[in-house]
Amino acid sequence: MSKCATASRDLDEPLAGTAATARTWLLLEQPGPWGAKALTSSHLDPEIGRALEAAAEGTGVRIALIRRPGRHADSRSPALRRVYAAHTVPGNTWLRGHLTDRPRELLDLDFTALGAGDHGGFGTPHTGDPLALVCTNGKRDRCCALLGRPLAAELSASGEQGAWEVTHLGGHRFSPTLLVLPYGYAYGRSGQAAVKEILEGVRAGRVVTEGCRGSSAWDRPGQAAELAVRAATGEDAAGALSIVHTDGTASGWDVTVAHADGRRWRVTVARGTSLPPRPESCGAALAAPARMDVVAVRQVAYDSAQEIRATVTSE
């Protein structure tokens, strides 16, 4: 049986616009084995897992379990677990850490506020290495285990203190997949050398666009549009670009991307289809996944009232 990641790589399926969407991530340490739906099929109390899923629904918060790279045989849960909360929207990006011996206490969080970027004093600011979260859950897709676990182990062995395994980032066929916090950019088909470069960029406040799937802060058209503006302008500063408006069209979307210095771009993103058909997960039927095709990037000029006065095309 062919691996879905091999098929996607061989067909050169584009990565831009394929990241999971979440304004805020809530990550709970849970060693031991994970099932396909890890919040309710791991050593975490499934009652707590179900309650966390319900609390986060519709809030913009995405919950995942994390564990340190290595063997994951059945073992007792640790007395203290690491918890991270991260908000990824530019202008209010933060990453905070917390230790708990009672995962149930996370149910006391205001998930609506978390999704809106208000941490409410939860935890303390994270001052260590950026987090490199590698999807390794083979119960969801074997590519994540076969390709993700070796990458996570290599990063840990190389001294990356922020290396963690994570339960699910979506897009199995782009394995090994990676999410980097605090900025929230996702990557696919990642190797150790590439991840090292990505993490060095994060430490310097830069975004590496090679292999980037997009920022989880935006929907998928916005992810593709932001990366297209970065490619057109060479802008690599984290937090420099934001998605301020998206209009649906008959064939896709018109996305307005704003720079912190006031510049604006209108990006036309077409709704495409990846052909020929390929499996989106190992063992799945052949399908034609949706793709985000950037058709044009146009810089637009605004007056002080933010109204368009002129358009300069850069395609």
Structural summary, described in words:
This protein is an alpha+beta fold. 21% of the residues lie in helices and 31% in strands. The chain has six helices and 17 strands. It has helices at residues 4-10, 46-56, 111-116, 142-157, 192-203, 220-233, and strands at 24-29, 61-67, 81-87, 94-100, 124-125, 131-135, 163-166, 178-181, 185-187, 212-215, 241-248, 252-259, 264-273, 278-279, 286-287, 290-302, 308-314. The strands form three sheets. It has a ten-stranded mixed β-sheet. Strands 11-12-13-16-17 form a five-stranded antiparallel β-sheet, covered by helices on one side. The chain is globular and about 55 Å long. The relative contact order is 0.16.
Précis, in short:
This protein has 315 residues and is α+β, with helices and mostly antiparallel strands.
Detail the topology: elements first, then pairings:
Elements lengths: L3 H7 L13 E6 L16 H11 L4 E7 L13 E7 L6 E7 L10 H6 L7 E2 L5 E5 L6 H16 L5 E4 L11 E4 L3 E3 L4 H12 L8 E4 L4 H14 L7 E8 L3 E8 L4 E10 L4 E2 L6 E2 L2 E13 L5 E7 L1
Parallel strand pairs: 1-2, 6-7
Antiparallel strand pairs: 1-3, 2-7, 3-4, 4-5, 6-8, 8-9, 9-10, 11-12, 12-13, 13-16, 14-15, 16-17
Helix fraction by DSSP (H/I, runs of at least 4): 10-25%
Sheet having the most strands? 10 strands, mixed
Would you list the SSEs in sequence order as H and E?
A: HEHEEEHEEHEEEHEHEEEEEEE
Kindly name the structural category. Answer: alpha+beta
Main β-sheet, spatial strand arrangement: 5-4-3-1-2-7-6-8-9-10
Distance between the termini: 41 Å
Give the number of DSSP strands.
17
**Unreliable stretches:** 304-315
What is the mean predicted local confidence, pLDDT?
92
State the shape.
globular
Number of helices: 6
Radius of gyration over C-alpha positions, nearest whole angstrom = 20 Å
Strand content: 25-35%
